[in-house]
Amino acid sequence: MQQSSLSAWLNKPSSVKQPPNIPLSQVVKGPLLPKPQPQAIPEATPSIVRQPLLRHPLPPNVTVSSLTPTFLPAFKRLLALLLPIPYHDKFFDAIFTDPTVANITLVALWHKSASAAASYSQNTSPQGYNGTPAIPTLVSAVRCKILETTFPEPPNAKSKSSSNRAENGTTTAKPTLYISTLATLPAYQSHALASTLLQTLIARAVKEYDIGGVSAHVWEANTEAREWYRKRGFRECGLEEGYYRRLRPTGAVRIVREVGVRDLLGEGFGQEVEGVMVEQ
Ligand SMILES: CC(C)(COP(=O)(O)OP(=O)(O)OC[C@H]1O[C@@H](n2cnc3c(N)ncnc32)[C@H](O)[C@@H]1OP(=O)(O)O)[C@@H](O)C(=O)NCCC(=O)NCCS
Questions:
Q1: Which contiguous run of DSSP H or E holds residue 205?
Q2: This model's pTM is above 0.90
Q3: Which of 120, 141, 136 has the alpha carbon at shortest distance from 75?
Q4: Over the stretch 203-261, which tens digit does the pLDDT of each residue have?
């Protein structure tokens, strides 16, 4: 798409994708998370999340929600199984004690059927799940944090798409959404789970934290994850040797992606070319 036609595209109703046919029961109205309770770790609201528009919609038996203590053991097992480094207790505690981290941590729950997913959503009240004990399986999760740093200047100086670009071409200070962990159980991969979780969080972080971009570190030997991110518009901007002291090789590739038009519209991933987001 040409830059000159971007405004027209944004205003053209016929080109705006309709959301997938999500049962109303899977959508929670009102705040996405309860106000954090002082002291105690809440047996929190799973707060089912509205799904973004993506090329592959989620299977109808999947719900997306915040992480509650009930699913913490499954979350820990997921990371231990799929990621090559251990995580400290503080890393997990922050999900329940830091309201920002809680707000930008999401899980995908796999139910036995679409009707079980709908039933789970309907029975999820602010006090938590109170229906029949058909506990779903936590199959995918993303945990992020907000870095209060200036988003890095991209190598392509012609790009004008970032909302944090100042008149003189420099980048103003905007926070970055940092992806701490992202993983899907192998048997449940290629169902758009990770894409949906990450895109949901990016859209949320754009709205609520005014982020300028998204970044992460990926182990240099993890070529599959590097390719996965590349297909979603991330670019590699440096190798940090010694980042993973216990791994061989030790390096982490730093990946970054600017916030784009599609993020602002709540649409799926695209790749930014000369300031215009294009379909993947
Ligand atoms: C990287 C990882 C998180 C991706 O998880 P995932 O849930 O399988 O991701 P998605 O389903 O969104 O995308 C995977 C592929 O399935 C495809 N896919 C998704 N839904 C699909 C569908 N309904 N039909 C066909 N293809 C589909 C996607 O297009 C994507 O392919 P592409 O990358 O060629 O575009 C997962 O492989 C993983 O856990 N890896 C190990 C941990 C790791 O390395 N994490 C990243 C470092 S922090």
A1: helix 193-209
A2: no
A3: 141
A4: 999 999 999 999 999 999 999 999 999 999 999 999 999 999 999 999 999 999 999 88
- 167 contacts: CB under 8 Å, gap ≥ 6: none
For ligand 1, atom 10, the nearest C-alpha belongs to 192
Atom of ligand 1 at shortest distance to CA of 181?
48
**Counting atoms of ligand 1 from 1, which one is nearest the CA of 280?**
35
Strand stretches in the chain, DSSP E: 62-66, 105-110, 124-125, 128-129, 137-147, 176-184, 213-219, 235-240, 252-258, 270-273, 276-279
Tokens linked to 78: 């997921």
Please say whether the beta carbons of 81 and 170 come within 8 A: no
Domain ranges of the chain: 22-279
Domain 22-279 has CATH 3.40.710.10: no
CA of 151 to the centre of ligand 1 (A): 26
Distance 269 CA to ligand 1 centre (A): 13
**How many A from CA of 170 to the centre of ligand 1?**
34
